Amino acid sequence: MSHIYIHIPFCHSKCYYCDFYSVATNEAQQEFVKAIIEEIKLRKDEISGHFKTIYFGGGTPTILSDESLEKIFENLYKYYSISSDAEITIEANPEDISAKKSSFFKQIGVNRISLGVQSLSDKELKYLGRKHDAKQAICALETLSKAKFDNISVDFIHGIPNSDLSNFSKSIELVKNIGVKHLSMYSLTVEKGTILCKRIEKGITANIDENQQAEEYILAIEIAEKNGFKQYEISNFSVPEFESKHNSAYWKGLPYLGFGPSAHSFNGEIRKWNIANIQKYIAGIAEQKPIFESETLSEIDKYNEFLLTRLRMNKGIQISEMEKLFGTNAVNDLKNFLHANSLSKNFNISDENISLTRSGMLFADKLISDLMK
Asked: What's the CA gap between 73 and 259, in Å, rounded?
């Protein structure tokens, strides 16, 4: 089974913290839709078999007109074998949700909504530069619930300066009662070049406190699990049977196709990434020129990728899978390295798997980097 990602780069406005490729304009929208449909058509033979998930991310996919989204869906189903039980997700912002829009999503086959709530505190939403307020977010969730969406995911950001954990706890309880089945909870990061970074440098707004973030991360896990959301990946939680099938495919190293500017693709051996420039993307498609760069993964690359993806999940590395892919010696070498370098305290190590402890997850990037070849 394979998977499809569609990148829609348009936004109403750029959120202060965002460093994903996106453009705060509607210009060239028609040309973009034409180009992405052409890319979908041109790459129809790249990965064969059934596709188990489709994920529309961005940017803000819902900024496209209904007609444009419908055309993209039509071409996906025309050129690819989409499983009848495929998980089909679209990212949306609260201000874009209405009864009419929810009904349209149902009509075109969307069965999972990922809503960018980020916070249910108006003060925190203002700090993040979001367009919606808490009332709009709750209204959007209630609208989706009334439209019979039973697979709703909500994004939250923790570690915002001067945040209120009691409010966060109430927020988790509130979205659970509305019917949300999945949470993605990310630590706020200050990326160079973002509006937030510039505001902090100018002294306009407060900087993040990494110690506060670490404390909030552990508490956020406890709050989520107390409300029935089980952690299955560093930043992701769900009620039973509602884990994201699409994102889980990334962490399991399964093949996927990515369409649109900056989208990545992977077939198990070769990784591709499209150009992160909408005008060059459109021109490249029109002129039938390459719009991507690629690399063939070496055995060392595959090993490092394996560590990077599997250790993000609570299940961690399955010893049987690692032995099959890299041999018994690789497993023994990894275990010996962990013990020899006093890293074992951050890992759960057994005959079946190797996974990060809860405290180890706080330093996941550094710990995994230390294990790479």
From this structure: 13
- Among the three residues 251, 276, 291, which one is the final residue of a domain in this structure? 251
Buried (b) or exposed (e) across 347-360, using 16+ Cβ within 10 A? bebeeebbbbeeeb
Residue 156: φ, ψ to 5°: -125, 150
Which pLDDT tens digit goes with each residue over 175-231? Answer: 999 999 999 998 887 677 777 777 877 778 878 777 888 888 898 899 999 999 999
Segment 325-339 mean pLDDT: 95
Diameter of the chain measured on Cα atoms: 60
> Does residue 333 have a pLDDT over 70?
yes
- Verify that 69 and 215 share a domain, yes or no: yes
d(CA 118, CA 120): 7
Residues across the chain: 373
Q: 6: domain CATH number?
A: 3.20.20.70
CA dist 92 → 83, 95, 201 (Å): 23, 8, 30
The answer, yes or no, to whether residue 118 has pLDDT greater than 80, is yes
Report which residue type is found at 149: F
Q: Tell whether 24 is covered by a domain.
A: yes
- 17, pLDDT greater than 70: no
307: its two tokens: 């560590």
SS3 content of the chain, % helix, strand, coil (to 5): 45, 25, 35
* Parent domain of 77: 2-251
Tell me: pLDDT of 21 over 70. Answer: no
Instruction: Tell whether 160 and 219 lie within a shared domain.
Output: yes
In this prediction, residues 76-84 reach a mean pLDDT of 97
Give residue 327's pLDDT: 97
* pTM score of the predicted model: 0.93
Which of 217, 251, 285 is the endpoint of a domain? 251
Q: For the chain, how big is the Rg over CA atoms in Å?
A: 21
